[in-house]
Amino acid sequence: MNNLAFLVTTFLRDKLLYQCINALVKYYPDYYIIVADQGHFTKEKDNYFDKLGFRNNTKAKRQYYKLEYDCGLCKARNFLVEKAYESNCNFVFLIADSIIFERNYDKEIQIVLEFLSQEEKRALVGFELVGRVKYEYDIELVKGKYFLLKTPKEPPIVYKNIKFLPVSITRNFFIAKIECLLDCKCPEELKLCEHELWHYIMKEKGWLKFYSNCIQAKYINYKPKEYLEMRNRLYTVYRKKLQEICKIENWIKIER
Predict the structure, then answer these.
(1) Residue 26 to residue 23: CA distance in whole angstroms
(2) Per-residue pLDDT tens for 70-101?
(3) Which one is predicted more confidently, 139 or 216?
(4) CA distance 169 to 172
(5) What angle is formed at CA 218 by the lines to CA 186 and CA 67, rounded to 5 degrees?
(6) Which residues are registered as beta bridge partners of 104?
């Protein structure tokens, strides 16, 4: 179990962060939990993490790091991956402060790790977030095109009674091999780490991605004003960069 770390990014949502961490500590006490905070720092938050045994070094199983304010989600995620690597973790479970586990999925996690380990280029498996639109589409990113697909092009792979559906993109709630995330780092100059660009980079490098509903968690859609202002400011820059890298002049959504 020690070869997987839960990676948690947080920005200006402390109440949600506490719910997220409380659930991880309750359901996954034997795993690494590594938190990168790019928001405001308070004595209350320091006391909370200290009481739960979080430290700012890779020798601890529970780690809490304070990053520069509003340094960007891309930088925070890259930082977490590096810390997981330094902690000798082979896999990471990427979540955020708005994602709350409501039960233990130890059995399912171990099957996912086995599935990913079977082939070198199997990169990650994304899962379902309760409270968001059900995952029914697959987005295909190719140069000059952007397709929203209603049905997958490839049949699912069944392993130990769990279906793994090949996809081009997943939600930001997944288990991944750490070597894939080290190979496909988020572009830190963009700050905002949206799905499409990161998954496009992974696809270009030949990494394989899957979706399964064997693991679920609750998603809470709460975005403070300061958070929304930051996101809206960065999204225009991000979309321009995505079009530039993927050579997409027109965004075409086609159900087929």
Answers:
(1) 5
(2) 888 888 999 999 999 999 999 999 998 999 99
(3) 216
(4) 9
(5) 35
(6) none
Instruction: Find out whether 185 and 79 touch, Cβ atoms under 8 Å.
Output: no
Q: Which of 197, 177, 8 is nearest to 100 (CA)?
A: 8
- Where along the chain do its domains lie? 4-246
Q: Give the CA distances from residue 5 to residues 24, 33, 78, 113, 207, in Å, rounded to whole numbers and listed in that order.
A: 11, 6, 14, 12, 20
Which CATH number fits the domain 4-246, given the four candidates 3.90.550.10, 3.90.79.10, 2.60.40.290, 3.40.1190.10? Answer: 3.90.550.10
Residue with tokens 């590096």: 82
Q: CA dist 97 to 48, 79, 211, Å?
A: 15, 16, 21
Query: For residue 141, which of 210, 199, 186 has the smallest C-alpha distance?
Result: 199
What is the DSSP annotation of 205-229?
TT-EEEEEEEEEEEE-----HHHHH
CB 19 within 8 A of CB 100: yes
